[in-house]
Design goal:
The chain has about 300 residues and is mainly alpha-helical. It is about 80% helix and about 0% strand.
Length: about 300
């Protein structure tokens, strides 16, 4: 790895850390943008034209969202002027950053054109700062939590519908991320966001790693793990959100739509995992099976305890 690429990787790691650890809004926003600026050159390293086109589209969408997020977030967190206009602008800006409904339109097309490493980078570390902003906003201004919950429920359903219309595994993972983003947004209000995000990132990383290595059977199990079926560890993440929602006294409507989306999503998870299973020519390596077993065994232990 060249020195410049190493610098960009350091920016990608340190940017979100600065963003979530600072109490100053300009510094929080700047940390998020440092991570974003470190990501773009890494995305453009690929030699495939479609990957570069997807990276430029991602850059345009994220840059636009960053401008509106800085303006509305500054009014809300610095001047404490969270009227309905600025609150709506802030929520929509964050939704565009995260790929949350109604800002989800770019996710499947961008992920479709990227390689596996780029998919992991886009769907992974840069989601941390926007979720931290949204969680802080929901705690500070609970009167706007209803709007956040509505977008979360609709995002979970939209991801399920989009996933069932995909024939490409990358586009399916993009649609899956829309659904999981909806669940994590519920966690911003009810609690359980960071445990869900951590579990999702581990499962996503393992799944993309196995697909990159063309380990079809391990990839099939990883895709199935993302569905949240017991005893896979994503089941624990969703169970945590549901339990926190019930303890919070949430309306059944805000749980019914995400739960229905989980059932609908299971259709395309099974379709793709079965397809990879049929294409497997040999038994996967011991390292792949050990990694999958260890991660999902944690889910079983968590449920028992």
């Amino acid at each position: 790895m060249s020195a410049s690429n190493l610098l960009f990787l350091v920016m990608l790691i340190l940017g979100p850390l600065v963003s979530v650890s600072s109490s100053s809004w300009p510094l929080c926003w700047a940390g998020m943008e440092v991570g974003f600026l470190g990501l773009i050159p890494l995305l453009l390293l690929g030699s495939v034209t479609s990957s570069k086109e997807a990276s430029l589209k991602y850059f345009c969408v994220q840059a636009l969202a960053s401008v509106f997020l800085f303006l509305t977030g500054g009014v809300i967190f610095i001047f404490h002027g969270a009227n309905i206009f600025y609150a709506l602008g802030f929520i929509l800006s964050v939704s565009l950053k995260l790929g949350l409904f109604p800002g989800h339109f770019w996710v499947t097309s961008v992920i479709f054109g990227m390689d596996w490493v780029s998919c992991c980078l886009v769907l992974g570390p840069l989601k941390i700062p926007p979720f931290a902003f949204l969680s802080s906003f929901s705690e500070t201004y609970p009167e706007y939590a209803l709007g956040v919950l509505v977008l979360a429920s609709l995002s979970a359903m939209m991801g399920a519908f989009l996933g069932n219309n995909q024939t490409n595994v990358r586009a399916m993972i993009g649609a899956s991320s829309i659904t999981h983003t909806g669940w994590m947004t519920l966690g911003c209000v009810f609690g359980g966001l960071w445990s869900y995000l951590a579990i999702y990132l581990v499962v996503l990383f393992l799944g993309l790693l196995f697909l990159w290595q063309k380990d079809n059977l391990a990839g099939a199990l990883s895709i199935l793990s993302m569905s949240g079926l017991p005893p896979f560890i994503m089941f624990v993440a969703k169970l945590t959100i549901v339990a926190n929602s019930l303890n919070y006294g949430a309306s059944f409507l805000f749980l019914s739509l995400p739960l229905l989306s989980a059932v609908l999503s299971l259709i395309f998870y099974l379709k793709f995992s079965y397809s990879f299973y049929l294409n497997e020519k040999s038994f996967p390596g011991k390292a792949s099976i050990f990694a999958l077993g260890a991660v999902n065994l944690l889910g079983v232990i968590w449920v028992i305890l």
